[in-house]
UniProtKB/TrEMBL annotation:
It comes from Adineta steineri. This is Uncharacterized protein. It comes from the Eukaryota.
């Protein structure tokens, strides 16, 4: 679904953003799809699946192209939630990290903890 207003001659002229109520209704409709039940059987929570659909509609203004895209989005969000685990310190913002790194280098301090490359997370 695209949310474009058509002009009188049929051309797409202007984007009209969806309201929160419209997004909520669209998300609820998608939660009844068979792919959602498969994702639930794989262990994803309904709240996570709902958030994935909501983010997709809000930011991309369109549905997932395939069920695989939805599954990958659920996997990514699930891993992010588990890694962050409610701790704001676990969120690294590249620009902030780089600025701090540059400041530390100017001071002659190299924090080896920041330079340490963490082991990749194994995806099951």
């Amino acid at each position: 679904q695209r949310n474009l207003q058509e002009s009188t001659n049929g051309e797409n002229s202007q984007y009209i953003p969806w309201t929160n109520d419209e997004i909520d209704r669209m998300v609820k409709a998608r939660l009844d799809l068979p792919v959602v039940e498969k994702l639930r059987q794989e262990g994803y929570s309904m709240a996570l699946i709902r958030k994935v659909y909501e983010m997709q509609l809000r930011f991309k203004k369109d549905d997932f192209k395939t069920d695989v895209d939805l599954r990958v989005a659920c996997l990514i969000l699930d891993k992010q939630v588990k890694l962050i685990n409610g701790n704001e310190a676990n969120i690294l913002i590249p620009q902030n990290w780089l600025n701090k790194f540059i400041e530390d280098q100017k001071k002659g301090i190299v924090n080896t903890e920041q330079l340490e490359i963490k082991k990749p997370i194994e995806i099951q």
